[in-house]
Amino acid sequence: MRLANLSGRAVLVFGDSAVDVERASSGAFGSDPQALFEHWAAFVAWAESVEGGGEPVDRSLLGPPVPRPQQVFAIGINYREHQAEAGYPEGSLPVTFTKFPTCLTGPDAVVELPPGSVDWEVELVIAISRRAHHVRKEEAWDHVAGLMVGQDLSEREDQLAGQRPQFSLAKSYPGFGPTGPWLVTPDEFEDPDDLAITCSLSGEVMQDSRTSAMIYGVADLIYELSRVCVLLPGDIIFTGTPSGIGNARTPKRFITVDDSLRSGIEGIGWLENTFTV
């Protein structure tokens, strides 16, 4: 199943077409994509009966599939090659911070660049399907509603200006959390723990890896986060980025208004972001 946010309404995506959830269900489920997570099991059971059809999908009208999560978790230094380029020691717990929900935007959004040095970080983003606390690793995937492509855009000057990194604020400017293009349920993948992940800036490949290279996989992250926090239906987790970020390059490379940023994950799709000031 592919669930999208089309002009603020929940739709099921079948190829290039979309079926409006509220209309197709005769009101059994509403139009708000975020509200579906409160009844996720029932919604998925109903969605399996929908056979397709609908109206053409206009990508310019797609918003974030999970538009208003109560909690946004983000993980740093979660790919071994990125750990090496960033100079972090091995064996520590997942580096965890937040991106504030107001930064979330759609897959093809035009993002305003603040003053400073804006960097890219393509990431697999997962959405939580039901309340999770003290979840065992073997049961972690049972708490996953679906997967999205995400970009953890980061303003590096704010992030590194003080004596301690300022992760959350520097990564939460408006538009700094493109997600989408839709939410894909785990059953759509042969192996949801091993997906190709890539990012190109104006046609030049910057990041190219597989999610199997994560230090902490999806089950590990749900286990570790739920050991401390209560994860809620519709929460999302940015799971970390591979090597190839602009701040680690020589010379450093950052996003400009002339750039386009394409971020993709196997079996899900891609984001295509452009920039303004």
TrEMBL record:
<dbReference type="InterPro" id="IPR011234">
    <property type="entry name" value="Fumarylacetoacetase-like_C"/>
</dbReference>
<dbReference type="InterPro" id="IPR051121">
    <property type="entry name" value="FAH"/>
</dbReference>
<feature type="domain" description="Fumarylacetoacetase-like C-terminal">
    <location>
        <begin position="72"/>
        <end position="275"/>
    </location>
</feature>
<comment type="similarity">
    <text>Belongs to the FAH family.</text>
</comment>
<protein>
    <submittedName>
        <fullName>2-keto-4-pentenoate hydratase/2-oxohepta-3-ene-1,7-dioic acid hydratase in catechol pathway</fullName>
    </submittedName>
</protein>
<keyword id="KW-0479">Metal-binding</keyword>
<dbReference type="InterPro" id="IPR036663">
    <property type="entry name" value="Fumarylacetoacetase_C_sf"/>
</dbReference>
<dbReference type="Pfam" id="PF01557">
    <property type="entry name" value="FAA_hydrolase"/>
</dbReference>
